Amino acid sequence: EVQLVESGGDLVQPGGSLRLSCAASGFTFSSYWMHWVRQPPGKGLEWVSRIYTDGSRTPYADSVKGRFTISRDNAKNTLYLQLNSLRAEDTAVYYCARGDLDGYFMDVWGEGTTVTVSS
Amino acid sequence: QSALTQPASVSGSPGQSITISCTGTSSDVGGYNYVSWYQQHPGKAPKLVIYDVSNRPSGVSNRFSGSKSGNTASLTISGLQAEDEADYYCISYESSSTYVFGTGTKVTVL
Questions:
Q1: Rounded CA separation A86/B57 (Å)
Q2: Phi-psi sector, A66: left (phi>0), alpha (psi -120 to 50), beta
Q3: For residue range B58-110, what is the model confidence (pLDDT) as tens digits?
Q4: Strand A78-83, strand A18-25: pairing
Q5: How many CB atoms neighbour CB B97 within 10 A?
Q6: Residue A69 CB: number of other CB atoms within 10 A?
Q7: Element holding A37 (H helix, E strand)
Q8: What are the distances in angstroms from CA B53 to CA A58, B35, B80?
Q9: pLDDT digits (tens, 9 = 90+) for A17-67
């Protein structure tokens, strides 16, 4: 079964840091682009970042550029998102999603992990 | 990276057809055939229902269809059913190699 499981969400103070993980199983992880998408409470979806199969080409949304870093470990079938300089507006459910083989849509999603930024 | 524009809500009776629009610019929707649509039920992860403007993944009902004209993409749900009540989001690849979601549409089955 193709599956993505996020972890690492927590309550963190403004200015703090957090690392999210997404464990992949049931498919050849190294062959697929991967995305992070977030959803603030009661609001819509926001694309955050994408990473190419070999870890190169990592564009970011303007709202997180310079603060968040996407990475992957193909040997561990795991996707990461490092969140630094966190702000209240980063509070959201963070989803990882598998890109199709060309990367332009997301065909498999995890259930999400919740990040809350508050003092 | 301005969000694509969708109507906040659309409603219809069971059996009817509804259409959700997704309006962007020539730098995103109008410039690429990389628009996809996602259905999201409350408290659940999004689910892909249309990709590359008009393609339907295996397992998705053929009541879902997509199209595009200029800078506007559309999702049509025909034969509306109670289970279709959910939030729907479009997303497009854009010229800066990033992606932009639509504002989301709440579909209500009357």
A1: 36
A2: left
A3: 999 999 999 999 999 999 999 999 999 999 999 999 988 899 999 999 999 99
A4: antiparallel
A5: 11
A6: 16
A7: strand A34-39
A8: 24, 5, 20
A9: 999 999 999 999 999 999 999 999 999 999 999 999 998 889 999 999 999
Q: How far apart are CA A97 and CA A111, in angstroms?
A: 10
Residues of chain A with C-beta less than 8 angstroms from the C-beta of B92: none
- Would you state the structure tokens that stand for residue A12, as one six-digit string? 């963190």
Please give the full DSSP string across B6-73, using - where no structure is assigned: --SEEEE-TT--EEEEEE--TTTTTT-S-EEEEEE-TTS--EEEEBTTTB--TTS-TTEEEEEETTEE
- CB spacing of B34 vs A105 below 8 angstroms: yes
Nearest residue of A to residue B51, measured between CA atoms: A105
Single-letter amino acid code for the residue at A40: P
Please name the residues in contact with B83: beta carbons below 8 A apart, sequence gap of 6 or more. Answer: none
- How far is the C-alpha of B51 from the C-alpha of A106, rounded, in Å? 9
- Pick from A47, A95, A112: CB nearest B98: A47
Provide the CB-side half-sphere exposure for B106 (13 A, CA).
Answer: 8
